[in-house]
Amino acid sequence: MTFHGTADVVAAHPSDVRDGEVPFDFGEIFFSRTDDRGVIQAGNAVFRRVSGYEGSRLIGAPHRIVRHPLMPKAAFHLLWERLKAGRTTGVYVCNRALDGRAYWVFAVVVPVGEGFLSVRIKPGTAMFDRVRAVYAELLAAEAQGATPAEGAAELMRRLKAAGFPGYDSFQAQALAAELAHRAERAGFPAPALAPAVNSARAADRIAASIAPVRDMLRKALHIAINLRIVAGHLGSNGRALGAIADNYASLSRDLSGWIEHQSAAGAFAGIAGAAGENLFLKAATGLLDEMAETFARDAEAGLGDPAAERERLSAAAAIYRGRAQECNERAARMALDLEAQLAQMRHRINALDAIRMQCRVEGAATASAGGELDHIVAQLDRFQDEMGGRLTEIMSHGRDIQEAAAATDARLVPRPVAHALRI
Q1: Which H or E run includes 92?
Q2: For residues 419 and 372, what is the distance between their CA atoms, to the nearest angstrom?
Q3: Angle at 132 between CA 206 and CA 60, to 5 degrees
Q4: CA–CA gap between residue 201 and residue 185 (Å, rounded)
Q5: What is the number of helices (H) and of strands (E) in the chain?
Q6: How confident is the model over 270-315, as pLDDT tens digits?
Q7: Which CATH number characterizes residue 95's domain?
Q8: In the 8-state DSSP scheme, what is residue 44?
Q9: Which of 34, 212, 334, 419 has the most CB within a 10 Å radius?
Q10: For the CA atoms of 180, 184, 186, 190, what is the dihedral angle to 10 degrees?
Q11: In the chain, what percentage of residues exceed pLDDT 70?
C-alpha cells in the first residue's frame, strides 16, 4: 500500500476562502472512501451537499480538494503516520466547501483493503474548542518555519500536558465526548459507552500516577542516604541506624527497579492503551453501524455500489467489535495483575512501620544526633504515608477498570487478589 504524505496536501489559495461556516445538523453523518493515494472513490449525499461539489467532481478527485488552510500540516502528518501503521484514527478536521466556507468535522478514518473509509460527525464539545486553539498555534508555528513533524511532536506534548498518555487516549476520549454531545443535540439515545469511558479514564490516571511514584522513591533513597550519613557520624552507636538506612535504601532500589521494569515492558502504558482502544473501537463501531444503516436511505453513492459500501462498513464494524472485546479483556487482566503486584509493594512498605519505630527508639537513645535525626524520621513518616496512599489510589483505579470491564462482560467479574505476585 502506498500513501501520500503531508507534502502532497495542497492548501487552498487564500482567495478561495470565505468567512462563515457551512451549516449542517449534529444528527448528520458524512461518508467517503478513497484509494490508497487518497483519491475519492465513493461518498454519500451529506458529503456532497455540505462540500458543495457535484458527485462528478468529487469522484476521482484527491480528498485534499476539501482541505482548508486553517488546518495545520502537523495534524495530517500525525494522521498519515498512524494510517501507515494500519491504525484507525480519529481527528478533528476543518474542511473547505466549494464556496470557500469552512465546515469542521470529527473524522474516524479506517484502513480498509487498498484504501481508507471515513465517517465524520459535527463536533461541538469543549475539547473541540481547545483543539481549534492548539491548531491555530501550530499553524502560526508552521508559518514561522516549523515542519509538520515538529508540529506533530508539539501536538503530542500538548496532549500529554493535558493528561492524555498518548494519542490513542485522546482520540478515544474525544470521540466519546463528541458522540455524547451529538446525541444530546440531535435527540438520539445516549451511546452505551459509560463503562468504557470509566475504564479509559481510570487507566489514564494509572499512567499519570507512575511519575509521582518514581519521584517519591527517589526521595526515599535520598532520605536513606542522609540517615546513613547521620549513622556514620555516630560511629558504633549508629550501627542500628545504619541497618535501618540500608533497609530503606534496599527497598527504594527494589521498588524503583520494579517500576522501571514495568515501564520498559509497557505495563502501565499497556493498560491505558488497551482501555483507550476499547473505548475508541466501541465508539467507532457505533458510527460504522449507523453509516451502514443510513446507506439504505441514501441512494447517492457516487461510483460506488451502495450495497458494497454497506458491506465494507459492516465488515469493519464486526472486526472492531471483536477487537474491542479483546481490548476490554486485556485491560481487565492487566489491571488484575497490577493490583496483585501493587499489593505486594504496599505490604513491603507497611512492613517498614516496625523499622520506623525502631528508628525512633534508636534516635531517643542517641541524643547526640539531635534534631537532624528527628527531621529524617519525619521525612520517613511522610514517605510511608504518601506512598501508601498513592498505591491505594492506583489499586482503586485498577479495580475501576475491572468493574467497568465486568459491566459489559459478566465473565470479567473482579476477583479478590488471592496472593501477591513476587516483585
Answers
A1: strand 89-96
A2: 40
A3: 105
A4: 24
A5: 12, 5
A6: 899 999 999 999 999 999 999 999 887 766 555 567 888 899 999 9
A7: 3.30.450.20
A8: -
A9: 334
A10: 60
A11: 87
pLDDT classification of 380: cutoffs 50, 70, 90? confident
Angle between helices 194-233 and 370-408 (to 10 degrees): 160
277 and 366 both lie in a single domain: yes
Q: How many CB atoms lie within 10 A of CB 236?
A: 5
Residues 6+ apart with CB under 8 A from 330: 270, 274
pLDDT at 15: 44
Domain final residue, candidates 110, 145, 165? 165
184, part of any domain: no
List pLDDT tens digits, range 57-93.
999 999 999 999 999 999 999 999 999 999 999 999 9
Please give the grid coordinates belonging to residue 68: 482548508
174 domain residue, yes or no:
no
Q: Which domain holds residue 146?
A: 6-165
One-letter amino acid at 186 equals: A
Q: What is the phi/psi pair of residue 22, to 5°? A: -75, 125
On the question of pLDDT at 13 being above 80, the answer is no
* Cα–Cα dist 330/112, whole Å: 25
Distance from the first to the final alpha carbon of the chain? 44
SS3 of 411, please? helix
Residues 281 and 360 in one domain: yes
Q: Are residues 14 and 150 in the same domain?
A: yes
What whole-number distance in Å separates Cα of residue 316 and Cα of residue 88? 11
Beta strands 40-43; 89-96: pairing state: unpaired
Contact (Cβ atoms closer than 8 angstroms) between residue 178 and residue 287: no
Greatest distance between any 2 Cα atoms in the chain: 92
Give the span between the Cα atoms of 421 and 384, in whole angstroms. 21
- 96: its cell numbers: 473547505
Half-sphere exposure of 316 (CA within 13 A, CB side): 30
Contact criterion met (CB below 8 Å) for 271 and 206: yes
**CA distances, 161 to each of 158, 165, 209, 215, 413 (Å):** 5, 9, 14, 18, 34
Return the closest-CA partner of residue 101 out of 51, 62, 135, 65.
51
Write out the DSSP string of 95-110: EE-TTS-EEEEEEEEE
